[in-house]
Specification:
By secondary structure, the protein is mostly helical. It has a single domain, classed as Na+/H+ antiporter like fold (Up-down Bundle). It is built from 14 helices and no strands.
C-alpha cells in the first residue's frame, strides 16, 4: 500500500503549502486568480501537448479503456439526470458530472499505477481518454453556456479552438498521429512550462481552502455528496461489473481497471471551475472528499482483487 499512501502524501504537502500561502496572504489578493490563469491558459496546455505529442494513440483502442469510458459515461449521466431533475443549472451540473467521473490520472494516478499495479503506463489510456475527449467536450459546454458566448453559430462551432486546454490536447494528438518527433531543444521549454501545471493547480486548491466551510455541509451539500458517492463507490463498482460481466476480465487486468476507476476526482477540475467562475465550492469539496474517501476504497480494492 506504499504507492497509495505516498501518492496522497505528496499531494497533501503541496495543498498544505497552498493553504499556508493563502492564510499568510503571501501572493496578495490576485495571487489565486493569477495561478489559476497560469495553470489553465499556459502550463496546462503545455503539459497536455507534451504528454500527447509522444503518446501511443493505439492504447485508446482496448477493452480496458472501453470499461473506463463506459463507467465514466454511466456515473456522469447519472449526475446529469439528477441535476436536470433538481434544476441545478448547466454549468453546475457539468462540473458535478466531471467530479463524478473524471479521475486523477496524472499526479495521483501515475504513482499509484507504478507502485500498486506495477506499471505506470497502465494509466495512460485513461489520461488520453480524458484529455482527448472528456475535457474538450466539457469545456466546450462551459464555454457555450458562459457569459459572453452569445455570438453567431459559426463562432460557437469554433469554441473548442479558442479553449487553451482543448487546443493543447488536440494539437498534441495531431503531432502524435503524424508520427513527427519534435526536436529536443524545441520540446524542452514546453516541458519546463508544462511542469508548472500540477503544482500550480494544487497550490490554487490549497489557497481556496482558506475560510471555506466544512465539505458536504454548505449550499452544495447534495451535489457534493452525490458526486463523491458516484466517484468513490459508483464508478469502481460499475467498472468491476463491466469488466467481469461484459469483457470477461480477470486477475491483473480486472485490478487495473477497478483501481483506475476508484481514483479520486482530479484537482484540475477546481481549476476549470475557477476559470469559468461556476460551482467552485462544488468542485473544491468534491475533490477534497473524494480524495479522502478514495484512500480506504483503493486499499480495499487492492486487497480484494490484488
Amino acid at each position: 500500500m506504499t504507492g497509495v499512501l505516498s501518492g496522497f502524501a505528496v499531494i497533501a504537502v503541496v495543498i498544505g503549502a497552498g493553504h499556508v500561502l493563502g492564510w499568510r496572504g503571501t501572493l496578495g489578493d490576485p495571487g489565486r486568480e493569477v495561478l489559476t490563469r497560469l495553470a489553465f491558459s499556459v502550463a496546462g496546455p503545455a503539459l497536455l501537448f507534451r504528454t500527447l505529442a509522444g503518446a501511443d494513440l493505439s492504447v485508446l483502442f482496448s477493452s480496458r479503456l472501453l470499461v473506463t469510458a463506459l463507467s465514466t459515461a454511466a456515473v456522469s449521466a447519472a449526475f446529469v439526470a439528477v441535476g436536470a431533475l433538481r434544476h441545478w443549472g448547466v454549468g453546475r451540473t457539468t462540473i458535478g458530472a466531471l467530479c463524478a467521473g473524471y479521475v486523477n490520472s496524472g499526479n495521483l494516478g501515475i504513482p499509484i499505477a507504478a507502485y500498486v499495479l506495477g506499471d505506470a503506463s497502465l494509466v495512460a489510456p485513461v489520461l488520453l481518454f480524458q484529455v482527448v475527449l472528456v475535457t474538450p467536450v466539457a469545456l466546450t459546454v462551459l464555454d457555450l453556456t458562459g457569459a459572453g458566448e452569445k455570438g453567431t453559430v459559426w463562432r460557437r462551432l469554433l469554441t473548442p479552438l479558442r479553449n487553451p486546454i482543448a487546443v493543447g490536447s488536440l494539437t498534441g494528438v495531431v503531432v502524435s498521429a503524424s508520427g513527427w518527433r519534435i526536436p529536443g531543444p524545441v520540446m524542452e521549454p514546453v516541458t519546463m512550462i508544462g511542469n508548472m501545471s500540477v503544482p500550480a493547480a494544487l497550490l490554487v486548491f490549497g489557497m481556496s481552502l482558506r475560510g471555506s466551510a466544512a465539505p458536504g455541509r454548505g449550499l452544495d451539500r447534495h451535489p457534493v455528496l452525490l458526486s463523491v458517492a458516484l466517484k468513490s463507490l459508483g464508478q469502481p463498482l460499475v467498472a468491476w461489473v463491466l469488466a467481469r460481466g461484459l469483457f470477461g476480465l480477470h486477475g491483473a487486468p480486472l485490478l487495473d481497471v477497478v483501481v483506475t476507476s476508484a481514483l479520486p476526482a482530479a484537482q484540475n477540475l477546481f481549476t476549470y471551475a475557477s476559470r469559468y467562475q461556476v460551482a467552485e465550492s462544488l468542485a473544491r469539496e468534491s475533490v477534497l472528499l473524494s480524495t479522502v474517501v478514495s484512500v480506504p476504497v483503493l486499499v480495499g480494492v487492492a486487497t480484494v482483487l490484488g
